[in-house]
Amino acid sequence: MPKGTDSKVLANNKRASFDYAIEDTIEAGLVLTGTEIKSVRKGKISIGDAFVRFDGGEAILWNSNIAHFEQGNRYNHEQLRPRKLLLHKKQIVNLIGAVSRDGYTIVPLKVYIKNGYAKCLIGLGRGKKKFDKRDDLKKKDAKRDIERALRDKQKY
Fold first, then answer.
1. Whole-angstrom Cα distance, residue 3 to residue 103?
2. What torsion, rounded to 10 degrees, do the Cα atoms 65, 125, 31, 73 define?
3. Is the dihedral of CA 34, 29, 63, 65 positive or negative?
4. Which of 25, 27, 103, 156 has a CA 20 to 30 Å removed from the CA of 12?
5. Residue 105 in contact with residue 20, Cβ under 8 Å?
6. For residues 79 and 85, what is the distance between their CA atoms, to the nearest angstrom?
7. Per DSSP, what are the bridge partners of residue 9?
8. Residues near 124 by Cβ (< 8 Å), separated by ≥ 6?
């Protein structure tokens, strides 16, 4: 893919917005091997169960599943290996401080290709309680009903 062209979103974590109230988002680069980036470009990535932890001053993406590359040989990558995220030191320090507060975690929201590089949009989120999830569903249903009523009114 030539540089300067944007691509569609390759993986989307829909469950993250349901389970967490996302307060802040940061774009991070992904460190991938050759067969991993080829599988990611084909859309063979899953970030539904993934999370971010800090180890030795580095941000690490855990539990992201990148399927084996079909044309890969014996040097094919491991599917569930931890992958390093590329962030500035100041961003890492800010995220470590935010995660040390109670109830906050960092979850990946999207994986996409930008200017030829794999990027991961990570979000700082606070876990939702069951009643928060029900309130969100009620608001979503109300919004859908309003849009449906407006659309029906415009037909006549």
1. 39
2. 0
3. negative
4. 103
5. yes
6. 17
7. 112
8. 22, 23, 24, 25, 26, 95, 98, 99, 104, 105, 106
What is the rounded distance in angstroms from the CA atom of residue 11 to the CA atom of residue 35?
A: 17
**Is-contact 64 46, C-beta < 8 A?**
yes
- Among candidate residues 83, 85, 107, 80, the one with its CA nearest the CA of residue 24: 107
Q: What are the pLDDT digits (tens) for 124-147? A: 998 888 777 888 888 889 999 999
Residues 76 and 72: their CA atoms lie apart, in Å, by: 5
CA distance 48 to 13: 5
pLDDT of residue 111: 94
Coil, helix or strand at residue 67: coil
Dig out the tokens for 119 from the structure: 């990027």
What is the C-alpha to C-alpha distance for residues 38 and 68, in angstroms, rounded to an integer?
A: 9
